[in-house]
């Protein structure tokens, strides 16, 4: 449910009401970046409720067919395990969570983990890799990168333990999920761009030459756009992301979000050294169509109603689509209805998208829309 | 597909293979090596699950299974595959060395699936040459054989890389084990106090422990290649090398003890040298281990000295555990207690308990030690033979290094003899005090009696017409002299009066005494006597012997009081000491004794009381019936006569008192008759000196009644003055001894200087042996108060006659 105003008392009352049906509830709060100052008081009130919760700050929120730049979206799920906080993601020696107990308790079903992760920290991809190494496809991951539209690194996730950065928060629900992931970005060149020297999110060289020089030349040649080193780097570069090959799927997008003075390019997610990438570009039609296809991908059983529809859409897509972003959301809602699902898609515009991609390898995506349907078949059949 | 897109697909495949190839061998550590390659493979080929199985021996894993899981993403735990079963897909791949595709849902896939929930997809098994297999699971079934073959070349390279990684890991592991092993031995060698070294065939050092190198003032590294001549004087080095050669020649291990002077101190070294052998058993050098045992040797010697001290100590030493069970006893313990070490060790110290102390005494002793304190005190112990001994005991706890009490040391000194001497000293001091008391009392008594006898003499002359009165006076006079005898006995008991011994026949004397005393014994008592037909001559003080007889008869009389058939036996006989007598009185050997026995069938004396019957003032009689001095006097008198007194008594049956006095080898002289008549004076002037006025006046009256003229002086000084003034008149001086201002002896000396021919007769109420000791005054010139008028008149007369 969406709240356009942040009135903490009404928020906490809503959480309390939504949690009432469950023996063991967990609240998931998508909060607009505009309300960062309200977070400490919100935490205090939520703690008083004694309902476990996780929350994240995002550039925008999605409720039905519209995006909002203020307010909050709150969803309450039956909890399968107490929320987990992973801190210290700016350090290589962070401690990955042990989910053995959770897996043992939910061995007969494929539970869903909803994860909010600081998009601006360096070990977010490594954490996902650790989580996948730990649990594989026995748990579905769904979520996105938290942060601010100005791409400045500030605290962006919160739990009862506080409002923190360089951290990830994970809530677990016993609801099963089906997830669709699409982006609609297309290769515009067969010329490979190989990350011949990189470290985590930063690419130093492409094709054995300074990364920016090669990227700029490639965009200029194949996108007829002049990428500059100025403040508008992201605005232009976001239209020309790079794609990592993935067998049988769309390329996995890597979004160049910043250019460092040395000519190194910083991406939202990590780019392994020697990765072979291609220059991508998209138009409104392909992106919107991809969103519709993501809805198609996550359909499970058209005779069963999902209890929740969560949508995670990349912030850079809003930049690329501009006013057409609402069209994408309308397309998603329409396609849901076509599939007989009555639930409203709710979620956020994020900085990086997380999905275990059905039964596939867990990835941190960029410039992608992830749609998840959460099912409790017995209640909504 | 057109040619352009075909080319693009090929280029894409090549690029993916390029990326995968570059992901191979990114880390040496096997798991990291797998992760580096397989993460890229999973991402690019959308492979959700991978597992790497390698030969168990490459991982030092459970050798029961041929393959072990090296890496899996996501991680998994599963049982090792049984590839002995040729139907197992892994067995087929290992055998054929070709990739194998198995669709989920098939029976083979079920073998691979295990616990995993898979709804579709495909397993692709790649051989890893020489290593094992790589298992991939893809959710998609659209993987083409071409794609599988494309990957094989990369995976083969991965296998080579992984083989290198595993080899490196094994090498690291072997190195670590080697290092660990070396460290283990190094730790052993470097931390032991012993010094170790290895020499080659030429006695050159190959290796040594650090402490050995330190001793030689070098380092283990610097020692290599050097020999003993580089560090020791030539004669010592030569000896060491001679030892080395002998040991290498004989092939035997030797223990060598030697002493060397190091830094000016003699040190004792124990060395073990053994031949060093190569892997074929051939001797190629010498191994040495030595230890400076100086401290141990000194400690052993110190212990030996301590042991000798303990073993030769005069005091009994017991080491016992906390429950007082004896762990060790020294020879002195055996001597003192009579228990041998074999008998004592293992027993509790309570075997020494005498029963003379209450239980609380022992509890307090043990508790003191348990609390970590030292207990000191005197205690009576019971020896093996049942005898008791006084010991001074010192019990101390012994603690271990942590301060815990582990045992106790009990040192006990036998003080039995010391105790006896202490008791004797106490008795002696008691008697000394008693003597002082008796001496003072005797003086007062004697003075009083002297006054009384004098007055009685005067009274007697005044009552010559009244025979009955004269008789009474004489009776009183007798009682006065008897009292004087009593005082003498008291002095005798207290050893304050020398005996006035003379030879007498004990048989006749006892008969006479018995005759006089018979009347004091009731007729109801059956009194039997037995006297030796032969005379039994003894040299003794008649008064004391008489008192012995009277005291014994009186005691017998009192003992049979209340008896239905009271009986007393008085017997005098000769006695030759037998063995039992000599055991009790060893000093009696070689002598014959007169034996006086008084026995009765009275109440007897209990064993407890028997110990005290000779104590002064100890009496069991009713108040007023006994002084408690009777048997003390008997005991003292016997001792002064060189005799003994023994008691045999049974409670309720009776008592026998046996007095033994040494027999004279010659017959006793018959007593001379003593004149009972007074000798009158003839008007001679007598100077009477006495500080007691009443005695002076009495004496003056008596002397005047005897016919003397009397001058009086109250002390020695006044006496000298009077004597000086009347030196030509005074014919004799009767001089008291102890007086204020000037005593009798000094006064007499001064008179003697004035006129030496005037006799002085000293009269004293004190024991004359006390007051006139070493005065040089003749015994016959000294009279003890009270004296009879007859005696003094005779002596005076004799003196006056001599001085004319």
Report a brief summary of the structure:
Chain A has 381 residues and is of the alpha+beta class.
Record keyword descriptors for this entry.
heterodimer; A: 381 residues; alpha+beta; 2 domains; six-stranded mixed sheet; 27 strands; globular; B: 804 residues; Beta-Lactamase; 5 domains; five-stranded antiparallel sheet; 25 helices; 44% helix; 23% strand
Describe this structure in words.
- The complex is a heterodimer of chains A (381) and B (804).
- With 381 residues, chain A is an alpha+beta fold.
- Chain A has two domains: 2-183 and 286-380, no CATH class; 186-280, no CATH class.
- Chain A is 26% helix and 35% strand.
- In chain A, the strands form four sheets. In chain A, strands 1, 2, 3, 6, 7, 8, 9, 10, 11, 25 and 26 form an eleven-stranded mixed β-sheet that branches. A six-stranded mixed β-sheet of chain A has the order 5-4-24-23-27-12.
- In chain A, strand 7, helix 4 and strand 8 (139-146) form a beta-alpha-beta unit.
- In chain A, helix 7 runs parallel beside helix 9 (324-338).
- The radius of gyration of chain A is 20 Å and the shape is globular.
- Chain A starts with a strand and ends with a helix.
- The relative contact order of chain A is 0.16.
- Chain B is an alpha+beta fold and 804 residues long.
- Chain B folds into five domains: 3-172, Beta-Lactamase; 192-297, PAS domain (Beta-Lactamase), CATH 3.30.450; 317-414, PAS domain (Beta-Lactamase, 2-Layer Sandwich); 499-662, Heat Shock Protein 90, CATH 3.30.565; 685-803, 3-Layer(aba) Sandwich (Rossmann fold).
- Helix content of chain B is 44%, strand content 23%.
- In chain B, the strands form six sheets. In chain B, strands 2-1-5-4-3 form a five-stranded antiparallel β-sheet, with helices on both faces. In chain B, strands 7-6-10-9-8 form a five-stranded antiparallel β-sheet.
- In chain B, helix 15 (467-493) crosses helix 20 (630-640) and helix 17 packs antiparallel against helix 20.
- Chain B is rod-shaped and about 195 Å long.
- The relative contact order of chain B is 0.04.
- The model of chain B has no long low-confidence stretch (mean pLDDT 86).
């Amino acid at each position: 449910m969406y709240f356009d105003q942040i009135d903490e008392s009404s928020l906490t009352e809503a959480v309390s009401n939504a949690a009432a049906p469950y023996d063991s509830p967990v609240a998931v709060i998508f909060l607009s970046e505009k309300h960062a100052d309200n977070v400490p008081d919100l935490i205090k009130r939520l703690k008083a409720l004694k309902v476990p919760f996780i929350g994240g700050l995002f550039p925008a929120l999605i409720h039905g067919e519209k995006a909002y730049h203020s307010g909050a979206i709150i969803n309450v799920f039956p909890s399968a395990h107490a929320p987990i906080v992973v801190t210290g993601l700016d350090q290589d020696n962070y401690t990955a969570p042990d989910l053995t107990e959770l897996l043992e308790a939910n061995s007969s079903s494929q539970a869903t983990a909803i994860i909010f992760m600081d998009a601006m920290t360096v070990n977010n991809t490594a954490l996902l890799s650790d989580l996948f190494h730990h649990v594989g496809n026995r748990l579905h991951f769904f979520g996105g990168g938290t942060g601010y539209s100005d791409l400045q690194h500030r605290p962006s996730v919160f739990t009862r333990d506080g409002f923190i950065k360089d951290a990830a928060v994970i809530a677990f629900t016993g609801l099963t999920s089906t997830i669709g992931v699409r982006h609609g970005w297309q290769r515009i060149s067969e010329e490979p761009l190989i990350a011949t020297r990189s470290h985590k999110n930063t690419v130093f060289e492409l094709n054995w030459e300074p990364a920016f020089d090669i990227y700029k030349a490639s965009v200029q040649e194949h996108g007829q756009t002049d990428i500059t080193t100025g403040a508008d780097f992201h605005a232009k570069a976001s239209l020309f992301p790079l794609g990592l090959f993935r067998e049988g799927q769309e390329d996995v997008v890597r979004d160049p979000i910043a250019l460092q003075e040395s000519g190194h390019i910083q991406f939202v997610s990590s780019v392994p050294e020697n990765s072979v990438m291609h220059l991508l570009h998209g138009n409104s039609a392909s992106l919107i169509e991809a969103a519709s296809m993501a809805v198609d991908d996550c359909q499970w059983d058209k005779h069963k109603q999902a209890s929740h529809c969560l949508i995670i859409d990349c912030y850079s897509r809003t930049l690329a689509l501009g006013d057409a972003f609402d069209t994408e959301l309308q397309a998603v809602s329409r396609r849901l209805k076509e599939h007989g699902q009555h639930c409203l898609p709710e979620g956020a515009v994020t900085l990086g998208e997380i999905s275990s991609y059905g039964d596939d390898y867990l990835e941190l995506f960029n410039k992608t829309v992830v749609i998840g349907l959460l099912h409790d078949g017995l209640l909504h059949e | 597909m057109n040619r352009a897109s075909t080319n693009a697909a090929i280029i894409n495949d090549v690029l993916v293979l390029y990326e995968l190839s570059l992901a191979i061998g990114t880390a040496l550590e096997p798991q990291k090596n797998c992760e580096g390659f397989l993460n890229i493979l999973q991402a690019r080929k959308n492979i959700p699950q991978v597992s790497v199985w390698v030969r168990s021996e490459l991982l030092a894993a459970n050798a029961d299974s041929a393959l072990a899981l090296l890496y899996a993403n996501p991680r998994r735990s599963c049982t090792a595959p049984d590839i002995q079963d040729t139907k197992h897909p892994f067995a087929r791949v290992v055998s054929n060395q070709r990739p194998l595709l198995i669709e989920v849902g098939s029976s083979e896939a079920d073998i691979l699936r295990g616990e995993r929930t898979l709804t579709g997809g495909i397993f692709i098994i790649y051989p890893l040459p020489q290593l094992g297999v790589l298992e991939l699971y893809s959710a998609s079934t659209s993987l083409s054989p071409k794609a599988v073959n494309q990957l094989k070349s990369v995976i083969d390279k991965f296998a080579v890389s992984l083989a290198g990684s595993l080899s490196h890991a094994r090498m690291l592991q072997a190195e670590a084990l080697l290092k660990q092993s070396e460290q283990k031995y190094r730790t052993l060698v470097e931390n032991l106090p012993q010094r170790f070294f290895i020499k080659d065939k030429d006695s050159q050092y190959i290796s040594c422990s650090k402490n050995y190198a330190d001793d030689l003032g070098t380092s283990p590294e610097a020692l290599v290649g050097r020999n003993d001549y580089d560090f020791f004087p030539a004669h010592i080095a030569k000896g060491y090398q001679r030892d080395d050669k002998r040991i290498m020649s004989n092939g035997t291990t030797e223990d060598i003890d030697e002493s060397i002077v190091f830094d000016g101190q003699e040190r004792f070294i124990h060395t073990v040298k053994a031949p060093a052998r190569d892997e074929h058993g051939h001797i190629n050098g010498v191994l040495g281990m030595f230890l400076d045992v100086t401290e141990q040797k000194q400690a052993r010697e110190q212990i030996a000295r301590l042991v000798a001290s303990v073993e030769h100590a005069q005091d009994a030493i017991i080491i016992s555990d906390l429950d007082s069970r004896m762990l060790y006893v020294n020879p002195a313990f055996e001597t003192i207690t009579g228990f041998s070490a074999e008998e004592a060790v293992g027993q509790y110290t309570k075997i020494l308990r005498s029963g003379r102390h209450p239980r609380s005494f022992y509890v307090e002793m043990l508790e003191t030690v348990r609390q970590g304190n030292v207990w000191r005190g005197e205690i009576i112990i019971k020896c093996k033979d049942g005898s008791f001994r006084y010991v001074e005991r010192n019990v101390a706890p012994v603690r271990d290094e942590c301060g815990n009490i582990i045992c106790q040391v009990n040192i006990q000194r036998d003080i039995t003899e010391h105790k006896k001497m202490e008791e004797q000293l106490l008795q002696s001091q008691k008697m000394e005090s008693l003597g002082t008391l008796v001496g003072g009392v005797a003086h007062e008594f004697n003075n009083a009696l002297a006054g009384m006898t004098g007055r009685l003499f005067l009274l007697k002359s005044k009552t010559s017409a009244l025979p009955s009165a004269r008789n009474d006076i004489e009776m009183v006079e007798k009682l006065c002299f008897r009292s004087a005898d009593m005082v003498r006995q008291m002095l005798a008991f207290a050893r304050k009066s020398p005996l006035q011994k003379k030879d007498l026949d004990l048989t006749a004397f006892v008969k006479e005494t018995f005759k006089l005393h018979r009347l004091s014994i009731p007729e109801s008592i059956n009194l039997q006597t037995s006297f030796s037909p032969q005379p039994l001559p003894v040299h003794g003080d008649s008064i004391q012997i008489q008192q012995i007889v009277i005291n014994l008869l009186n005691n017998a009389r009192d003992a049979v009081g209340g008896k239905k058939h009271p009986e007393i036996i008085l017997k005098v006989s000769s006695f030759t000491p037998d063995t039992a007598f000599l055991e009790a009185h060893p000093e009696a050997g070689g002598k014959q004794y007169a034996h006086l026995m008084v026995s009765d069938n009275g109440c007897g004396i209990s064993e407890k009381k028997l110990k005290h019957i000779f104590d002064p003032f100890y009496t069991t009689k009713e108040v007023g019936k006994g002084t408690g001095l009777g048997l003390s006097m008997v005991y003292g008198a016997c001792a002064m006569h060189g005799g003994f007194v023994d008691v045999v008594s049974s409670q309720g049956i009776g008592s026998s008192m046996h007095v033994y006095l040494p027999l004279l080898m010659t017959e006793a002289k018959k007593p001379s008759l003593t004149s009972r008549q007074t000798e009158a004076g003839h008007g001679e002037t007598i100077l009477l000196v006495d500080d007691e006025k009443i005695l002076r006046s009495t004496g003056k009256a008596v002397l005047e009644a005897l016919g003397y003229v009397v001058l009086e002086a109250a002390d020695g000084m006044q006496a000298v003055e009077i004597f000086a003034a009347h030196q030509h008149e005074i014919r004799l001086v009767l001089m008291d001894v102890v007086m204020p201002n000037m005593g009798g002896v000094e006064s007499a000396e001064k008179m003697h200087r004035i006129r030496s021919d005037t006799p002085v007769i000293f009269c004293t109420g004190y024991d004359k042996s006390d007051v006139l000791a070493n005065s040089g005054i003749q015994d016959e010139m000294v009279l003890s108060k009270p004296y009879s008028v007859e005696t003094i008149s005779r002596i005076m007369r004799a003196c006056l006659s001599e001085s004319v």
